[in-house]
Write a structure and sequence with these properties.
A 5-stranded antiparallel beta sheet has the order 4-5-6-7-8. Strands 3-2-9 form a 3-stranded antiparallel beta sheet. A two-stranded antiparallel sheet has the order 1-14. With 548 residues, it is of the alpha+beta class. The longest helix is centred in the last third of the chain and has 40 residues. It is built from 13 helices and 14 strands. Helix content is 47%, strand content 14%.
């Protein structure tokens, strides 16, 4: 194994070593909010019960609801939650129609069953909600490499955060990614072929085809890996290493990293992110567990109180089960008091404890943004200004939750999917793409309650502007020329989701307007000719011409 690979492996080991304290924090968070994922510093065995350390499931339910919000509100499968756009083609009808068609093609690719996008995104949602980051790969499906496969596709997978470490470049973006990968010899043979495996691995597979292999998957800039002075022309290189045998199984130059690593909130001195929701909720979650345990113990004592027994008066054990009989010594005189009685307890603290628990639950919901996800109620007799103000308040409250997930999570996955799909020809031959789109970056616009609220606000502004314009025209009829009605209407229709193919192109609209104007001029000319002919006829008959 050459020195370049050894240096990269050492760099990766250093990153994993530096990440150990973060794994410990993630373990604590998982034990309180995400017990299914609490395997950062320990192993969860098959069949092991989750959350045995918890006395209340409320923090887990808050995390579950927060994680489900990202898919239900930002990626609803029953609607087109993303659309493609590009700068400079706003008035190019052909380009907009192609982008809408490409959006449907990409959605079909993403939701193909074998791609497992929904499963990977769901796992990523809960990692993102709990730990503020997740790691998802978007790759060509292994079936795509079969000979003459007529239907290539993509594969989406979410990886455990404990197995991935990364570093960032000068621009703060993720640059190097290292992933621990424990797999089997059979899978490696499927992925890379028998010729790429080490002879010791092949010999071991003769005894056990499914033997476990410790591997490392790396994506680094090409200038960091130049074995034997070889320089790659691509910006990145993907490397798969069999660590057990110190053997490189794959060196693949690539333009596109398979990793999508959305980060919710970051600090300037760390490449790793955190969850603003769970960081605030963690103290309350611990407090809730302690208070719940105290109240459960107090409730148990109230229902099954401790007993006081007179020494030497009870013959045998005290029967605590239903229908039990406890024998008292025959010589005991009950006039001196009961031989067995319940210990009286003060229960006045119960209401206070329940109020504290209720208050802590409210704090947990607030910390997880769950109290800010209800859309504003705009029903009733409200003015356009009142509707606008309520929508603005909702946007201010929801923006910290939706914006990072849209830009880094949804945006990262959609961009990676588009690049790979374009590479393997899912959008047809390149010469079929409109020329206006050549050399332009395709961007993604997302549909969410946040954007729907903005679009509703745009409609409210349009109605308010119409009312103001009508008032202005009452004073000055020429005020109507101030607003471009056609451009405004196109913007409003696009905002409410009207497909471009439902509308006519600006060029066709201009032709129709010109034709209508010509037709109106012809009709006016005919009317003038008819009026003139009538006037001449009246003059010939000696009658005065009617007043125009």
């Amino acid at each position: 194994m050459n020195n370049d690979i050894k240096d990269l492996i050492k760099h990766g080991e250093k990153l994993f070593s530096q990440k150990q304290p973060l794994n410990s924090l993630h373990q604590v968070i998982a034990e309180n909010f995400y017990p299914e994922r609490a395997s950062f510093t320990r192993t969860i065995y098959l069949g092991e019960e989750f959350g045995t350390n918890l006395t209340s499931s409320y923090p887990v339910m808050c995390r579950r609801d927060l994680g489900n919000v990202f898919s239900s509100m930002l990626r609803p499968s029953n609607k087109d939650w993303f659309s493609m756009t590009a700068d400079g083609v706003e008035r190019d009808h052909e380009s907009k129609v192609w982008l809408e068609w490409a959006t449907k093609v990409q959605k079909r690719i993403m939701y193909e069953k074998r791609g497992q996008f929904v499963r990977a995104a769901k796992e990523g949602d809960h990692d993102f909600a709990s730990f503020g980051q997740t790691v998802i790969t978007v790759e060509m499906h292994p079936d795509s490499f079969r000979e003459k496969n007529p239907n290539p596709g993509l594969l989406y997978r979410c990886w455990h955060l404990k197995d991935v470490a990364w570093s960032v470049g000068a621009d703060g973006a993720v640059q190097c990614v290292f992933r621990k990968w424990k797999t089997t010899g059979h899978e490696l043979k499927q992925l890379y072929g028998e010729a790429k495996l080490h002879p010791r691995m092949l010999e071991k597979m003769k005894q056990d085809p499914f033997c476990e292999v410790e591997c490392r998957h790396m994506v680094v800039p090409a200038d960091m890996y130049q074995p034997g002075g070889k320089a790659y022309m691509t910006p990145l290189v993907t490397i798969a290493v069999d660590l057990d045998n110190e053997h490189v199984m794959q060196e693949l130059p690539t333009k596109i990293s398979p990793y999508v690593i959305p980060r919710w909130a970051t600090l300037s001195d760390s490449q790793y992110a955190y969850s603003p929701a769970i960081n605030c909720a963690l103290p309350d979650a611990r407090l809730l567990q302690a208070m719940t345990l105290t109240l459960l113990e107090a409730g148990e004592k109230a229902v099954n109180p401790p007993l006081i027994a007179v020494q030497d008066a009870i013959r045998g054990d005290i029967g605590m089960y239903a229908g039990a009989i406890t024998i008292v010594d025959a010589g005991y005189d009950e006039r001196s008091g009961q031989a067995l009685r319940a210990l009286q307890q003060d229960k006045t603290g119960f209401p206070v404890g329940m109020e504290l628990i209720q208050d802590t639950r409210i704090m947990l919901r607030t910390a997880c943004f769950l109290d800010k996800l209800d859309l504003p109620n705009t029903a009733g007799d409200m003015t356009a200004y009142e509707v606008s103000q309520r929508v603005q308040e909702f946007i201010r409250n929801a923006l910290p939750l939706f914006e990072p997930a849209e830009v880094e999570f949804n945006g990262g996955i959609c961009e990676k999917t588009f690049e790979l799909a374009l590479m393997y020809g899912a959008f047809g031959p390149p010469d079929k793409i409109p020329r206006r789109l050549a050399g332009r970056d395709v961007e993604f616009k997302f549909s969410s309650p946040l954007h729907e609220a903005v679009d509703k606000q745009k409609g409210s502004v349009f109605l308010e502007a119409s009312q103001i314009l009508a008032s202005a025209q009452a004073l000055d009829p020429s005020a109507g020329v101030l607003i471009d009605a056609e451009e405004t209407l196109r913007d409003v229709l696009a905002g409410i989701g009207v497909p471009t193919k439902w509308t006519r192109s600006p060029e066709l609209v201009a032709q129709i307007k010109q034709s209508q104007a010509q037709q109106a001029a012809n009709e006016q000319a005919l009317a003038n000719m008819a009026q003139a002919a009538g006037a001449i006829k009246d003059l010939r008959q000696g009658s005065p011409a009617p007043m125009a």
